Amino acid sequence: MNPIPIAAEPSPFPLIAGKTALVVIDMQRDFLLPGGFGESLGNDVARLATVVPPLAALLAAARSAGLMVIHTREGHRPDLSDCPPAKLRRGAPTQRIGDPGAFGRILIRGEYGHDIVDELAPIDGEVVIDKPGKGAFYGTDLSEVLTDAGITQLLITGVTTEVCVHTTTREANDRGYECLVVSDCVGSYFDDFHRVGLQMIAAQGGIFGWVADTAAVIPALQQLTTTAA
Ligand code: C5J
């Protein structure tokens, strides 16, 4: 089957059946929920909440089209052995990774706050990658998972635009993946970082990848669903 072109910046993105995965980055309670770690750092978590409805719609469309779905979670082992001291020392002096927070120990695997928000919870068969860093390839088996599945195209979503979404997109781009960042399915605590972060992806002829919104991506996924049926 020929690729389906998605209208995107800076040029149409080739959506390829059987070779495309949806990556949902760090939609975790610790970052998104009022009262959680993100808010305790002084951030306005409402900015991230706006991502949930369009991302839920995209996730539903990706599932219907039979795309591989990969969720990531940023966090660490309870003994913090995978958290570099430099990462642990940084951040708010009052609350650090591993400290008790409103939703359990902050960014620790197995804690309530470390898990994904209910609206976007993984379903059976979807891959969940626990990552100790900002990029989803560092310290994980994501490369092997994608290679084994024959994936070449990534639809990248999640939070935050300029941190984990950007780092993962850059890592993926360097590894040869074609990445489309879905603009209304990524979010930041900072409007300027979000806006410029998206511009940086598609600048210079798509130096890191492509950018399009769900209004362009979901119909293409629906076309994939119809064609496959
Ligand atoms: C941050 C992330 N911002 N998922 N993590 O620390 O972007």
UniProtKB/TrEMBL annotation:
It comes from the Bacteria. Residues 20-214 form the Isochorismatase-like domain. Pfam families: Isochorismatase. Keywords: Hydrolase. Its EC number is 3.5.1.110. Transmembrane segments: none annotated. The keyword Protease does not apply. It comes from Mycolicibacterium obuense. This is Cysteine hydrolase. PANTHER family: FAMILY HYDROLASE, PUTATIVE (AFU_ORTHOLOGUE AFUA_2G08700)-RELATED, PEROXYUREIDOACRYLATE/UREIDOACRYLATE AMIDOHYDROLASE-RELATED. GO terms for molecular function: hydrolase activity.
